[in-house]
């Protein structure tokens, strides 16, 4: 299967269980793998036969940075992004998303906390 991959998209959002997370915000990193048939796009050099990854970036950014709709969990945030992508892009066959929360409020030393969904 063909893929479009967006790795390391960094955004600032207000998601989390703790009130401080909703008030102060923190950094989130999103990785996306979009699987679809890119044969016609490649043969015809046609943007209409593929998914515009610049648009995807902007749409994901709007969801993650929307301070008016914070999610408690990164699982819910990932599901929100996947639902939007499925609705908007009918040519998608499979999506893998990883939402990282490197500043998660965990007592201890760690590099990253993340959730991965596959649909």
From TrEMBL:
Alphabetical UniProt keywords: Folate biosynthesis, Lyase
Pfam families membership: FolB (PF02152)
Entry EC no(s): 4.1.2.25
Domain of life: Bacteria
SUPFAM superfamilies per the UniProt record, alphabetical: Tetrahydrobiopterin biosynthesis enzymes-like (SSF55620)
Pathway: Cofactor biosynthesis; tetrahydrofolate biosynthesis; 2-amino-4-hydroxy-6-hydroxymethyl-7,8-dihydropteridine diphosphate from 7,8-dihydroneopterin triphosphate: step 3/4
One Gene Ontology cellular component: cytoplasm
Annotated GO MF terms: dihydroneopterin aldolase activity
Catalytic activity: 7,8-dihydroneopterin = 6-hydroxymethyl-7,8-dihydropterin + glycolaldehyde
One of the protein's GO biological processes: folic acid biosynthetic process
SMART domains: FolB
Dihydroneopterin aldolase/epimerase domain ranges (all copies): 4-119
EC class of the enzyme, as a word: lyase
Annotated function: Catalyzes the conversion of 7,8-dihydroneopterin to 6-hydroxymethyl-7,8-dihydropterin.
PANTHER family registered for this protein in UniProt: DIHYDRONEOPTERIN ALDOLASE 1-RELATED
UniProt record similarity statement: Belongs to the DHNA family.
Protein name (Swiss-Prot/TrEMBL): 7,8-dihydroneopterin aldolase
Lineage: Bacteria, Bacillati, Bacillota, Negativicutes, Selenomonadales
């Amino acid at each position: 299967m063909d893929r479009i991959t967006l790795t390391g998209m960094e955004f600032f959002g207000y998601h989390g269980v703790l009130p401080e997370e909703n008030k102060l915000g923190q950094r989130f990193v999103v990785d996306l793998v979009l699987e679809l048939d890119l044969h016609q796009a490649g043969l015809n050099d046609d943007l209409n036969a593929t998914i515009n990854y610049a648009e995807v970036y902007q749409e994901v950014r709007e969801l993650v940075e929307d301070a008016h709709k914070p999610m408690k969990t990164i699982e819910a945030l990932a599901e929100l992004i996947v639902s939007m992508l499925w609705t908007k892009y009918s040519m998608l066959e499979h999506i893998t998303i990883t939402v990282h929360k490197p500043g998660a409020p965990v007592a201890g030393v760690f590099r990253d906390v993340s959730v991965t969904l596959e649909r």
